[in-house]
Fold this protein.
Amino acid sequence: MHSLRTGAFQELEAALGGHVADIRRHGPLAPLLVIVPTALLRLHLRRRLAGHLNLRFVTLAELVRTLTPGAKPLPAFADELIAAQIIEKGVADGSYFAPVKATAGFRQSLLATLRDLKEAGIAPKQLAPPAKPPGPKLAQLAALYAACEKQLAAHGVADEADQLAAATKTLPTFEFRVSSFEFATVCLYGFYDFNHLQRRLIAALAARFELHVFVPFLDERAYDFAAPTVAWLERVLKAKRSPIPQSAIRNPQSIISAPGEARECREILREALAFASEGKRPLHEVAVLARGDEPYGPLLHDLAAAREWPLHLAMGRRSLDAIEPRLLLLLLDIAANDFARSKVIEFATLSPATSSCAAEWDRLSADLGIVHGTGAWRDRVRSRAKQLQADQTQADESKQAGIERELAAARELAAFIETLTRAAGRLPQQGKWSEFTTALAVAAKDLMPPSEACDAALASLRALDALDDYQPSVTREDFARFARKAFESETQPEGAFQAGGPFVGGIMAARGVSWPMVIVPGLVEKSWPRQLREDPILLDDERRELNKRLPSEDGLPRLEEKVARGREEERMLFRLACDAASERLVITFPRLEPATGRPRVPSALLLETLGVANFTQLEQRARVVPLVPLVPAEGEMLDATELDHRLLEQLRRRGIKGVTPLLDAMSPTLAPGLLLEQTRWGGGKHWTPYDGCLARPESLEVLRQLFDPAKHRWSIRRLESYARSPFSFFLREVLGIEEVEEPEDAETISAVDFGRLFHELLSNIVRRFQMGNLLPLDPARSVESEMVMGDEAEGVFAEFASRGVTGYPLVWRVKQEKIRADLLHWLRLEYVHAADGYFPVATEWGFGLAGDPPPAQIKLDEKTTLLVAGKVDRVDRGPGDEVIVLDYKTGKPDKYRNESFCRARALQIPVYILATEQLAGKPCGGGYYYFPTRRGGFAKHGWYREQLAAVEPRLREILGCLVRSILAGKFFVTPDGADAAGTAMTKAAVETLWELRRDDESISDYRNATADDKEAAHE
């Protein structure tokens, strides 16, 4: 005789135990089959009822597999390949689904809809019966459905719905035995919803066995989702349900409002530890039941792992969290994306064999402008190695160590690229799935040390070999995409159930299991309840119409409505999570968006559960975790850092001073950090060491050795950079730290690369003019000049395009046309320049560099002479054998003025004038910053020699002040340099600090050097 019992899970579990005990009293060895919805519930009940013999627990999926032993299951991802084929063949241009045919989500949406139709027992002919012509959507959907079924039959495989239907047919005659005992009684435990095919199987079970059903259901709104199933079971079993009253309402003992998910997880662990400590219980008596796996599983895992606490992560850790699968995917990406720099460096960073070199390789490849391409990697790295080898013979001792280090890195990188190229070359452009897995295994041996983890990762990919029967040829890109899916769908076990650590998992997997303490996190809208959407192919209205046209024999709808039923299910799942707590229930929610700081809306489910009218009342009942302090005044401490912070807060409140020894014991950086803040903002109008003003004799001695005026060759550009930002100068020139500009693909060429291109272009054109005897330029030979210019432009354009720094092809073509127009305008101006008697005699003329003329000497005072090195973009000879110097600029001329040092930001031309006179032995008539582009207006700003002579003492003063300021260790942050890399302060903070201390006499040299021309004249 069948029976149906309903109640909350904890009461149902007791009822199941009593039922099993009754059966055992009549037949101690009588076999009993208990069918459950989840593997975790199976394990839980097996442990709770371990004292009974011949008690077998199976999930419904396991039962179906038992009933269909000869079924050939559909391999993983084969359904996607079949869907892709039927979409390609069955969705013609102009048909209903043609506009979305190529979209990323259509394939998955189609598979989900076909799965719903099949589980509803609706055949393609029923969906679009020939007697009544359907609309274009259902007609095409039916055709795609039929094509999919035909493909499954052709391959001789069965999907889950096919196996379920076959199991229902097999059930009446299938022999159920344990040893010599045949099952006569079956229990169905924990189910509250079935699809149409599952209901048929349950009905077949009821027709053959004595069926005892235990359904989680109470006469409450929270359980409305299960009501149709209960009513149907009463009809099938022909038995009235026996409700079991709930022994106690599980109301939350604590509600926690945290700033964000990360802080929420800290409070979750704190609550778990407090519960375990109070009752001296094991931590596995605590469960964290979320709506889904993300983000609480990974966050709690990381928190627990950092403290070496056990944790049972029910969903496991993703295979992609391990290094080996990521390396295999990166190898595929590298081959598919033409050795993209980001992928190559990421591979080197993750690989244990190369991780120690990856940072230097990253800097080197970025400096070489490598974006992608094996040719770019090989040629540029080898070229840099040759250049460095040549530099070794000319560099001074101070640079030898740096050159040797970079040379070693270049050689190691070149060898790595060769190995990587060889390994990636093993992967075919197109081939069978099995050919890719075999090639990838061979390639992995070249790059990855042998390990069990590597073997396991390769074994996961070998499962894709089964797809050879469904798609005989696959591209490298598609194989990489499915390889990633294979790893994403696979998880590695983390901990064990009731093995010492708290349980962390989604409620769907944990339904029916109970714990003394349960924590339910993430109670905000769009998280719980989830954001519900209709099926994009079969809308809810269309599902209702199909249910009317195709009524089910069991009286329930064949197709469920996604939104209405989804809301009911979300409410029931939340109630099941709350009811899983036998002693203590804690609910938590994040009230802020971590990325934006915007408030989040608490879940309406909370209002229903607590019986409060609005969110204001909810906040009054919750324990609000503040943004600061980071550690609560009471409660369990999660680690030593929290303990230290609480102790400091207690000492502060009690007014106790002299805690430096305690701070030193806590952290070697804590006391200096506190002192830094106190000194920086409490130092009044004087700059401090914490502002970048070095004071220790040892530090100043290092500076004197680095920048000894008697030996050091100063670059004027670097002195200008010091004037702009002393702190940036300190990072780059003293510490050797420099921001690496990523050379990745951009929409257009960067300003830096454009400047390099234009400099190289003009220099090359002038050299070609010299070689072709076209100087002085003559308009009568304009055809030859323009041909030379055009030819050189093509060469430079091709060179920069090969570096991968020119951006999108269309944008680059437009940019080239603009450059050609600028060059033509430049050439016309050069004709005028030549008519005045000037023509170039040198380009890129360097002095003070290795192999070049000696440095120029600028006497600052009786004791100090500055050694200057530099490279002049162009030197022209004019009438009377005098020369002029030019420095190209490709930006805007706004910051440059005639006859101005521009607050020490425009020192190159004045110094180049003096250096050229001294080293060339010829009078220099002047010099200009030349802006040879339309953006720069083809402007020239600079000096005549007579003008410079009048202010030459001021130039020497500026140079001397800058050098003295550097040697005095003044490396503070200025408002001009507030946005520079490495500056940790906001621009507003820098400006505030500068206003406080700009009059400090200790930086008088810097203030003097960077004073405006009028201010300096006034002084």
